[in-house]
Design goal:
Helix 2 crosses helix 4, helix 2 packs antiparallel against helix 11 and helix 7 packs across helix 9. The chain has twelve helices and ten strands. A hairpin with a 3-residue loop joins strand 6 and strand 7. 40% of the residues lie in helices and 11% in strands. It has 361 residues and is an alpha/beta fold. The strands form two sheets. Strands 1, 2, 3, 4, 5, 6, 7 and 8 form an eight-stranded mixed β-sheet that branches. Strands 9-10 form a two-stranded antiparallel sheet.
Amino acid sequence: MMKQSKLTLIIDGNWLLMSRFAVLSNQYKDDKELCEQIQLLMLKSISLVLRTFPDIDNIIFISDGGSWRSNVDIPQFIYDELEEGQPATYKGQRHLSDEFNWKMIFQYYEELMEKLNENGITTCRLPNIEGDDWCWYWSNKLNQEGTNCIIWSMDKDLTQLVNINSQDSVFTVCWESKMGLTCPVLNKEEEDPLQFFFNDITKEYNNRIFRNIYDKCKKVNEINPQEILIDKIIRGDAGDNIFPIILKNASNPESKKKFRVAMKDIDFNLNIKDDHDIREYIHNVMSSKKYADKVKKSEENIFEHFKYNYKLVVLDKNNYPDDVLNSMNSYTDYYVNNNIQPVLSYYTAKTTNIDNILESI
């Protein structure tokens, strides 16, 4: 029988790579030295997280392999709303600078993943599967097995995955040193907010693990994950090239400005899986004085756009193409191991000391 983890650290590998690259990119004389220092800084950063949260007994390191979302059919009305030269595809506006040798950087990154895997750390990278997808897959799989998860990333999209199981209090939280801890909204009606987690059916080790994480964090963000999804579906996300479902013309007919739905006009109780509820919300917005006759797109196209954005945004089993889901499901077994010391020692022997840099991030 495979050993079970109590608390697994799920590492967003591409975020970790790019965040450490941002710290080091202007400090080294050649590409090789830069790549080696990135490898070492990534490992030292992981080691620091393990010291911060000593209950972590397992690591899963995930990496982007492209995105199946780039192949989702784009509705024609999205093209009709684009500004000249603006790409329509998911994350289509993202480009790597020609200033750096990205081929070498990613070669060293893949070498690091291979070295981790050789030393018993689970690593995941497959074509057309994003890091977000792996975070969804592993947090759900591990939670179902009774394992708690920390997702280490600054990607706000991943906060939709935070949850607490009301039956056994198995949880998934997101964490990053500057962003702090992101967890579900705690029950403020209790004398102790954490009492929400500590009822009779809560297993003692989950109580202790969550409290240990909570007490280590100077900043705690309590969220309703549903609100994160509704906001992004309706208002879009420029960072991912996801467009707002409604663009309202300015009151001044001579102005070319267009505006997204205002935050105060969003219904955060909207059931995003109920077509009737979605259509009713759209109709109410479009019928209001603020939006009536100021939106070019029809209600039916807005509904279709909602469903398209839902496909791009929501991490859910029913959203995935069968081939993508089957590929992720091929990872049925995994290591339970948090020992990166052999890998850290290997890269430390190859490079110079960078402890001062680590302390600054």
